Amino acid sequence: MTASIPTWKQEKYRMVERWRSENQRCEKGAIVFAGSSLMEMFPVEAFAKEQGPDFPTVYNRGVGGWRTDDMLPMLDVLVTDLMPRKLFINIGTNDLSDPTVTIDALISRYDRILTQIEACVPGVAITLMAYYPVNAQAADEGMKATLRIRNNERIRAANVAVKALAERHHQRYADFNAPLTDAEGNLRAEYTIEGMHIREEGYRAIWPDVRKAILEA
Prior knowledge:
By secondary structure, the chain is of the alpha/beta class. The protein has helices spanning 7-22, 37-40, 44-50, 68-71, 75-78, 93-96, 103-120, 141-149, 152-168, 200-215, and strands spanning 31-35, 58-62, 86-90, 125-129, 172-174.
């Protein structure tokens, strides 16, 4: 069965299993960030440590390539074992890259994720992060086909649905995208690696707003 799983995904499973052990030694009631590659690549743990010893403990549990249906069975390792007091989540962009997945289907799975987390971690404050824009003009050849599906129009429609989902769960929706976005509504070319993923400089641009959200009561 393992042979049928792509090598990259096997590596992600191994990473999650390492976290399973690490979680036993992690601080409960900390801040957790979870999602897919755009979260995994966010050096939020390093940024938090730069703030000094009094800044809240932050754990990044983003897994590159994950879709909502990958995250659901792994919620114990990614979120609930840590019993966070605050969770920042950005999951579903890989669902948006699949033309057969409707936004309604994405939101249905996202709803199940939130429901399960809320049942296991009573009182957790969850921030649903807006999906980041993309830049098809700055995309390399390997990314152009994906961005014809996962385009900014589809992303904006999904963000409307995610905001409504947050409201239904009485949780927070946060759009940190302004520093990343150019005048045409695209991901700023200087902040993207290949049209979709974000350089560290881009994450540093949104960090002040993310930092403020972490510290809010």
